[in-house]
């Protein structure tokens, strides 16, 4: 089989996937998405991408357009277009988790700035304000009172992206200064780690300075993590969960999971698990 790993920024993850695929004897190629041009009238174009395309684009929109185009000509992708679309938008992710019966923080969406105060009062302060689309903890803010929230909304209203004028608010979950990042590959938790917040930082993103520690999830949590991945459509996913007084809550699912931080804390080869899954998918 031939595997193409399509990226728009070459990171450690893509290089490790390339290395593992070659060790396994898989014909593999790294392809820069920015170099691709598609003609909608030419059915069968770019079939040289091979039997399977693993989409690793940082740009959510580039990944969605690429997956939709490839699927239209019968080229299988991981993740699928529907999964990438669902995971790129936090509200779509939340709706999928809720439909799947996955415990998740209480979430309200206000379709304008006018509705934000009402949503915050319903949740109770402090509240977490997140962008609908975004990664690495950017623009994720904790509003401890109405004055802070008003300032955040005022800033968002000055931004030009219409998505920034739709407000996604979550309850603030009191938890240890850490969360759980699991790399779910198909129906298996390939690896799981604690992400421990940096000093003075409440967010647990590795991009925000969080450190990773090895973590072995128990059976009940493993089942929850796999079900959460299934709820958004399955594939190769980063499932984030937190510990609360009421048990585990799944708060995000990442459709283009970064795993360098997790790999530094575990013995299992995450890229090998991913490549093995991609090979199995082609053979189905």
Automatic annotation (TrEMBL):
Record PROSITE patterns: ATP_GRASP (PS50975)
GO-annotated cellular components: cytoplasm
An annotated Gene Ontology molecular function: metal ion binding
Keyword Zinc-finger: no
Keyword field contains Magnesium: yes
InterPro entries assigned to the protein according to its UniProt record, in alphabetical order: ATP-grasp, ATP-grasp_RimK-type, ATP_grasp_subdomain_1, LysX/ArgX_preATP_grasp, LysX_arch, PreATP-grasp_dom_sf, Rp_bS6_RimK/Lys_biosynth_LsyX
UniProt keyword annotations, A-Z: Amino-acid biosynthesis, ATP-binding, Ligase, Magnesium, Metal-binding, Nucleotide-binding
Known pathway: Amino-acid biosynthesis
Alphabetical GO biological process terms: lysine biosynthetic process
Cofactor: Mg(2+)
Superkingdom field: Archaea
Domain ATP-grasp positions: 94-283
Family designation: Belongs to the RimK family. LysX subfamily.
Protein name: Lysine biosynthesis protein LysX
């Amino acid at each position: 089989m031939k595997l193409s790993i399509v990226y728009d920024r070459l990171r450690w993850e893509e290089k490790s996937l390339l290395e593992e695929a070659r060790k396994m004897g898989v014909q593999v190629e790294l392809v820069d998405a920015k170099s691709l041009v598609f003609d909608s009238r030419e059915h069968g174009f770019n079939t040289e991408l091979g039997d399977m395309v693993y989409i690793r684009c940082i740009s959510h929109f580039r990944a969605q357009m690429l997956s939709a185009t490839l699927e239209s000509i019968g080229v299988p992708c991981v993740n699928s277009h529907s999964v990438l679309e669902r995971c790129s938008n936090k509200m779509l992710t939340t709706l999928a988790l809720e439909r799947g019966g996955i415990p998740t923080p209480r979430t309200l969406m206000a379709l304008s700035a006018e509705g934000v105060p009402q949503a915050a009062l319903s949740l109770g302060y402090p509240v977490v304000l997140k962008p609908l689309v975004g990664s690495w903890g950017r623009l994720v803010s904790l509003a401890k009172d109405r004055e802070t929230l008003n300032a955040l909304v005022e800033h968002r209203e000055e931004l030009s992206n219409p998505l920034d004028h739709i407000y996604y608010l979550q309850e603030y979950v009191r938890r240890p200064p850490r969360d759980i990042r699991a790399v779910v590959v198909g129906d298996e938790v390939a690896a799981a780690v604690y992400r421990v917040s940096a000093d003075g930082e409440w967010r647990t993103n590795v991009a925000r300075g969080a450190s990773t520690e090895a973590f072995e999830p128990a059976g009940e949590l493993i089942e929850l993590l796999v079900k959460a991945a299934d709820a958004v459509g399955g594939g190769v996913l980063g499932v984030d969960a937190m510990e609360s007084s009421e048990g585990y809550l799944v708060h995000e699912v990442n459709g283009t999971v970064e795993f360098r931080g997790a790999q530094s804390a575990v013995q299992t080869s995450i890229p090998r698990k991913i490549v093995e899954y991609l090979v199995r998918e082609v053979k189905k």
